[in-house]
Amino acid sequence: MFKKRIWKPLLISLAWLICFGGLVVLMSFIEGKKNEVVCKDVKIYIPGNQYFIDREEVDNIIQVNSRALVGRRMASINIHELENKLRANPFIEFAKVYTDMDGVISVEISQRQPILRMMNRFDQDFYVDQHGLKIPLSGNFTARVLVANGFIDEAFANHVDSLHSPMAMQLFKTADFIRRDSLWDAQIAQLYVNKDHEIELIPRVGNNRILLGTADSLESKFHNLLVFYKKALPLVGWEAYKVINIKYANQVVGIRNGILKTDSLNAKPGGNDSTKTIRDTSIKLN
């Protein structure tokens, strides 16, 4: 019985040693085979419908067309270096490069998604992506996104960078809110920063301007604007107002074209639509 107790752990240890040795031999065999594999092809995947960067540009970055990869032994190709070259491109958010035993290098690209095109007062023009990062314009593709211009001080150094000025951050916040709502995404065409450093919205329909003020309480302000659209504009038409002021959380003021008269929609704090009325009219909002 004593001998069995001694031999059992020895046999287990020997079995583990044999398995480990076999694994080392197998890994050495695989590594040897891998060192003999030659790159036969490079496959590039660029999903999405934004085309700031195309296959040809990716080819140029990793030098596919110059035969720098195809024909070389896979062991001599630095995958991490290829990824770093791709990530240095301002339009590429994420890049992954991997290989297989058949000699194929796969490249997966994720592009940055702009949500705002900003034109500052220094005549610089750049995009802001969904993460609030500034990126340059592209010669390959023009994104159909909101445009912001006017008295904007946010500078651009022609490389990927975060937003620095409070106004630029408010413009980004506003653009992000609008693009997430299908109604306002279809209705609002432009953001403008006036001389008082307040944000104005330029709609696609009508010649009026919507004075937003700041990016605070966006949900409340746009809700009140929607109520004003539904209740006030059908009575007088889209061209009746020169300015629609929604910068106050509990009030919408419409300044009419050609006259001094204003119509206002007031809301009690925390109230619902039934507590709101339009002054100078007999309409009650439901």
Order of helices and strands: HEHHEEEEEEEHHEEEHHEEEE
What is the share of helical residues?
A: 25-40%
| Structural Rg | 31 Å
Q: Average pLDDT across residues? A: 81
Biggest β-sheet, characterized?
A: 12 strands, mixed
Ends distance = 92 Å
**Annotation, overall tally of beta strands:** 15
Shape: elongated
Structural class: alpha+beta
CATH-assigned fold name of the largest domain: Rossmann fold
CATH first level of the largest domain = Alpha Beta
What's the domain count?
2
Tally of alpha and pi helices: 7
Tell me what portion of residues adopts beta-strand conformation. Answer: 25-35%
Unreliable segments of 5+ consecutive residues: 268-286
CATH architecture of the largest domain: 3-Layer(aba) Sandwich
**If strands are numbered along the chain, what order do they take across the biggest sheet?**
8-6-5-4-7-9-10-11-12-13-14-15
Can you tell me about this structure?
There is one protein chain. 31% of the residues lie in helices and 27% in strands. With 286 residues, it is α+β, with helices and mostly antiparallel strands. It folds into two domains: 41-111, membrane protein fhac (Ubiquitin-like (UB roll), Roll); 114-278, Rossmann fold. The strands form two sheets. Strands 8-6-5-4-7-9-10-11-12-13-14-15 form a twelve-stranded mixed sheet. A three-stranded mixed sheet has the order 1-3-2, covered by helices on one side. Residues 268-286 have low confidence and may be disordered.
